[in-house]
Known about the structure:
Blueprint (H helix, E strand, L loop, with lengths): L20 E7 L2 E11 L2 E8 L9 H16 L5 H7 L4
Antiparallel strand pairs: 1-2, 2-3
The protein binds zinc ion (ZN).
Amino acid sequence: MTRRYTPGAFGASHRRPPAATVSVAPVPCQDTMRTVTVDCAHGTTTLTIAEHPSGVQIAGQAAAVIAVQRHFAEEGCACTAELRRRYGVAP
Ligand SMILES: [Zn+2]
């Protein structure tokens, strides 16, 4: 988790921070691993998914749901509202 938000950083005309984003990327030189990152002005949550033949397969959308849930739990900010709606994450 990386914190980089500073109060007032968005200025009076931008009271609401930009919406959080989610991205999925392969891990270099690791064919069976990928990272899911949820990023907003308050912090970054990174989840590393490692696939194994005897493990549970986690589809891209399920991985995004987990990452959005974790980010919301860690940051507790409203930046993930759109992502939570998109992926059906409560509340
Ligand atoms: Zn945020």
